[in-house]
Automatic annotation (TrEMBL):
CDD domains (UniProt xref): FN3
Domain Fibronectin type-III stretches: 1-69, 70-168, 173-268, 269-353, 355-454
Name listed for the protein in its UniProt record: Receptor-type tyrosine-protein phosphatase delta
Organism the protein comes from: Geodia barretti
Transmembrane portions of the chain: 464-490
UniProt-listed SMART domains: FN3
Amino acid sequence: TVTWTPPSPLGNTTGYRISYTTGSDVDIDGGSTNSYTLTGLTNGKTYTISIVTTSSGLPSAPLVVTVSLVPSAPFIDSTPTVSATTVTITGSVPRDSVVTGFLVQWQRDTSGGCTNEDEGSINATGSFTSYTITGLEEGNRYTITVKLYNDAGRGPVSNSVTAKTIEAAPSGSPASITVGTLTANSVTLQWGEVACLERNGEITGYTVTAANSDGVVKGTSSVNVDARQATISGLTPSTQYTVSVAAVNGAGTGPVTALPVETEGPPPPTGVTAVQDGPTSITVTWTPPSPLGDTTGYRISYNTGSDVDIDGDSSNSYTLTGLTNGQTYTISIVAIAPNRPTSSPIEAQVSLVGVPEKPTVDMDNIETSPTTITTSWSFPPDATGSEVSWELTGQMRRRRASNAEGGTSGRLPKDQNSYTIGRLRSGTSYHITVTVFNPAGNSSTTFTHSTAEDISKSDSSASVAALGGVLGVVIVTAIVVQAVVIVFFIRRLQRAKVRPQSRAIDQSTKASTNTGVEMPTFSGKKYL
């Protein structure tokens, strides 16, 4: 392509004539035209090109340039052949190109944090059909291009192809391994990346191990490539380990970076609580560590110089006695093992309180009904709960057959300071006791109070008594009448039996008269 600047002023310019080689002329119309492309030329040949203006008169003086044609861009096949350290490319050159050599260039992919320090180029003589790049890194991706050249110079760049060499196990270990957290049963590690040229492929993860002095692996952890941190658990307290980290890729595991560590003493117990259970005693409870490791017991410390050693790895409670009421105790507990440091302490704090004062019952505001008594009281400041109990007056020692004879409310919360006793007997006196509690003990206040009389029952009793009197009179009258009737009928029956006998007596009397025998008389009468 030839370009130029039209003359100024144009004058009578009507066009241009381009000449290249002998007899090869091209006339171009248009005074303002400024470029033209010559085609059908020979690659690798040098051309002398001149241009003049044309007009109705004579042509201008010629302008002359010399041009040599460089080769066109070659083509690289998209399927290179690879090994661990080489890439072989194949391709072709344009048919019309004159080629005396070619330049192969490559550059490693910068993904994964690696820089492009591994790049290169090489010149080869002859026409391009294939080339093998050597000395590359295992498991790396490379971008490759080719340029052809001849005596005129280098031509344009070819298409690019990407090839990845075959992976090998990492040849380098992780950098900067450090211990993050170390406990009795675990160790947490952090580390840096493997050097780029030592990865030999794409790092996909890491293997972390902990081995004891005998070389026995006690813990293993596999983590992904982005973490670069891992925790190995299940270790033995107060034990020396060699912890190591190795990088992993598709071809295998690389060399390790190792570091010696020693776990802490026995793990501490957990869930420690301390509760007052008497005026001068505190019970401490805890959950034994898991795993126990070589724990053989525990040490409880309270205040300066007061220690108690407890044997037994599975023990979980102990009561401290002989303490001072009203004093605050800070209690700590550690696990102990032979010839080992103790675990880190776990603390709890308790303030000992005394037995609570007696509750004050509000005697002026006791509410009663025929079956209930409602009482209220004030809490002493150090009380934590209360209870109400009751008994029939004079029956404190008798067995309770029902709620009306006695009972208890059960433990009431501190925020409840009143209680209604139900199902009692009307007009009955009861002994009522209000008891308040705290860990040191309890105190009670007892008083006597009666339920109200049931008026409805009294009226009913009077009515029943009146009715009973009337019924009594009726019943007595009926009995008397019945007795009179019975007596009457008995008399009539007796008379009916005697009359036949009297007739016989009269006849006997007549006979005796006739015979001269005298008959006796009965009280001046002849018959009863």
